[in-house]
Amino acid sequence: MTNGKSFLSRQDLLALAVLAALLFIVLPVSVDIFRLNLVGKYLTYAFVAIGLVLCWGMGGILSLGQGVFFGLGGYCMAMFLKLEASTPEATKIQSTPGIPDFMDWNQLTELPWFWEPFKSFGFTLAAILILPAIFAFIVGAAMFKRRVGGVYFAIITQAIAAILTILIIGQQGYTGGVNGITDLRTLMGWDIRTDSAKYVLYFLNGGLLMAVLVLCLFVLKSKLGRLLVALRDKEDRVRFSGYDVANFKIFVFCFAAVLSAIGGAMFTLQVGFMSPSFVGIVPSIEMVIYCAVGGRLSIFGAVYGTLLVNWAKTTFSETFPELWLFGLGALFIAVVLVFPNGLAGVYRAQVAPRVKKWLHTRKSGPDAPVQDPQAAE
Amino acid sequence: MNTLANNTDFLLSIENLTVSFDGFKAVNDLNLYVDENEIHVIIGPNGAGKTTVLDLICGRTKATDGSVKFRNRELTSMKEHEIVREGVGRKFQNPSIYEDLTVFENLEISFPRGRNVFGALTFKRDEEVVSRVREIAEMVFLDTLLDMQAALLSHGQKQWLEIGMLLIQDPELLMLDEPVAGMSVSERKQTAKLLNEITKGRSVLVVEHDMKFVEDIAHRVTVLHQGKILSEGSMAKVQADPKVIDVYLGH
Amino acid sequence: MFADYTWSELGSIFAMQGFAGLILFSVFVLMALGLAIIFGQMGVINMAHGEFMILGAYVTYLCSHIVENYVPSLFGVYFFGAMILAFFASAALGALVEWALIRHLYKRPLDTLLATWGLSLMLQQAYRSIFGAREVGVTLPDWLLGSVALTDTIEVPINGLFVMALTLVIAVAVYFLMFRSRMGMQTRAVVQNRVMAGAVGINTERVDRKTFALGCGIAGIAGSAFTMIGSTGPTAGQLYIVDTFLIVVFGGAASLLGTIASSFAISQAQSTMEFFLSGSMAKVLTLLTVVGILMLRPEGLFSLKIRR
């Protein structure tokens, strides 16, 4: 394991291939576009969950405010799309045509200054990546340079999520309030509400997710990945090995924030609106459970965990709405008490040794007996 | 020794060092000097402030007053990682290693290259790193266990691994807090041999309880009592000092 | 923004808002006291603390109903009995939760946080299934209704005064329990050095359970008091949990005095600003200030320099 040639091991490639097959082949051919769009929506949460694996699972930094970054990305995208949908022709029945409808309802007569730059798609894309990074940097630098971590960090990030939600809901003239920014139509003239657009966006989302996974594998396989594990374990030892520990925590927090924002932006594109209900305390902590169910140490686990929990949520809250909260609550408790390593833990204990064996036999010769039946169990 | 001039020929000079916690002076107006290539041992009863002195040198605890100079550079205003980069290594009382990583990775992380975020991302495990890790692993008797997860090592091996993690940084001053605590007799002997070997070209400051071990390694001994120096000199000299006998046996 | 008011009006506004702030302060203190014991003394994050409070509120609501319908003669004083019942109900649930959940997680604070969040979801759904999603209110006895006129323009409601008096009594009781009694001493001993406390003959498991139950019981009393000034719904507890945690952290987690001081500062700031700004902006500004200060001074307002 000490060869530094490629950061992708055979297991990683297999995991990537299996996920790609599921996302790009199995799901698109087996479910209709409505369900596929739903899967796409879930996958946007997976960006957050992957970020949490790096931040919380590897680095030991639990952020209960990832919804803030998801929201930042989502709102940036929504602002751009809303401006495109609010042309003077489309809004000529308003008392002030050319501004988003909710502003008109709230007696605003001109576009607020911070909306102006979102007329540019380039600026919007840059903002989706840079805004959350800057925000995470400020929070991270303030906290980690002062050696605040653990539960204090969790509480502060949760408070930030609460503050942002109250702010968005309170300032409805500028933000669309509790309903969020709705009625989004086109992206650069391309109607995102059609089935074909939904297919394209689903594949774009999946492609981005794969790219993010590869990027995360690179980070995790670099010395920085091992340092994260090291500082989760013995922070002082890392510090007394000559590292400025805070910088590494800030980096991983910013990295996770940017991933969340990408997820948020893709959410807006696929679902067609953004609202404070994806920003606050409740969604933020729910995203932690996606990561925990998948296994807090596995980025692939995070993707499957997200899909599984959301699938369960949709199924249960459709048929037994009463039971869903019990189920979700029990899931929080079970994942902590019984399965601290989540799905990935089960995989590692039960399936991984067999896959390894299978890969090994494949490596040693193409004629070696393939132990598929066991591996498939 | 009684020079109070700002610059000294000593590798480490501690002058008038004081730290108080809510009025309790854990270290009180301490003066201590470490020569080049010296094994200097601090002994003293529990609560004498031995570990606190190490904490003050490496920046883990901030001094209330006084100065700590390393090669005539003031350490008290530096952050921990800056002090490490000056060339001061610190081993903790309980073996402090990364249990989830292998022995190799433990040593590799301690290798002094790629210490910022970008450097860590682009760090390459090249020939220099691998050969240096092997060299150090051999010194600390772990060369056959490089791929083992560190959590599986014995207590004594963990202590050695941590010493190895410091050696790979090639510090000029190595500070060890009770390096043989919990070791078997044969491990102690090996450790004493190791310390005598690694002191070539560097100084070592040790806090230790085990008198037999101190006798084996110490060039000079400082006896600390209630945050102050009680006695200083060779092992034979401090052992004969009536004040020391009184503190250790008198109660 | 002061231009439209005369000085005496402004004085009355500040007095009335100040009083509203004092009621908010009382609720904050009652909530935060329980949390200060559980989080500050034991180091356990209990995200279901709000739901323990709501349990107390529902117990009070049930008592008010039962007494009103079956023993109306006692209606004037039912509240005291309800409060004691609320304390024991929440404390009993607390002890159960400690036994089933918390004790397995003392070394994993972040996991405690997630598990208790799960618990809070389950409790919320349980309240919704039992009491319905609608908010419920209790009927107050006559002597708690009405208000006292201090001047022509300043009136203070009696129920508010009652809640404040109650808060004072409970705060003093908690202080004596935690810092002047054997139980408090044992709790602090266990928190500071579990192994040593066990070695000197303290039953650490029992102390943990008692302390956790006590914190939850106080939350129950808080819920009981809460019914006198507002209505109760299944998710009402969640609305307060962030504020309460911020209060405890802001005050310096281990300091009861700090908890009270920060409750006071936050409640006064919020209620005074509320009159001039919209409620949401007042809250945003208050919380933002607290978070800002905590980023600059993470140890909170009151803290000790300790030897590590």
TrEMBL record, chain A:
Places the protein is found: Cell membrane
**Which UniProt keywords are listed?**
Cell membrane, Membrane, Transmembrane, Transmembrane helix
Q: Name one GO cellular component term.
A: plasma membrane
Q: Which GO terms describe its molecular function?
A: branched-chain amino acid transmembrane transporter activity
User: How does this protein sit in the membrane?
Assistant: Multi-pass membrane protein
Q: Secretion signal: which residues?
A: none
Where does the chain cross the membrane? 13-31, 43-65, 121-144, 151-170, 199-220, 241-267, 287-311, 323-347
A Pfam family assignment: BPD_transp_2
* InterPro entries membership: ABC_transp_permease, ABC_transptr_urea_perm_UrtC, LivM-like
Supply the PANTHER family for this chain.
HIGH-AFFINITY BRANCHED-CHAIN AMINO ACID TRANSPORT SYSTEM PERMEASE, SLR1201 PROTEIN
Name of the protein this chain belongs to: Amino acid/amide ABC transporter membrane protein 2, HAAT family
Name its species. Answer: Roseibium suaedae
UniProtKB/TrEMBL annotation, chain B:
A Pfam match is: ABC_tran
The superkingdom listed in its UniProt entry is: Bacteria
Single annotated GO MF: ATP binding
Query: Quick check: keyword Cytoplasm in the entry?
Result: no
Which residue ranges does the record assign to the ABC transporter domain?
12-251
**Protein keywords:** ATP-binding, Nucleotide-binding, Transport
Identification of the protein by name: Urea transport system ATP-binding protein
What organism is recorded for this protein? Roseibium suaedae
From TrEMBL, chain C:
InterPro entries, sorted: ABC_transp_permease, ABC_UrtB_bac, BCAA_transport_permease
Protein location? Cell membrane
Q: What is this protein called?
A: Amino acid/amide ABC transporter membrane protein 1, HAAT family
- Lineage of origin: Bacteria, Pseudomonadati, Pseudomonadota, Alphaproteobacteria, Hyphomicrobiales
The topology of this chain with respect to the membrane is:
Multi-pass membrane protein
Transmembrane segment boundaries: 20-40, 52-71, 77-101, 158-178, 212-233, 245-266, 275-296
Cellular component per GO, a single term: plasma membrane
The Gene Ontology biological process terms listed for this entry are:
amino acid transport
Organism in which the protein naturally occurs: Roseibium suaedae
User: Entry's Pfam families?
Assistant: BPD_transp_2
Answer yes or no on keyword Transport. Answer: yes
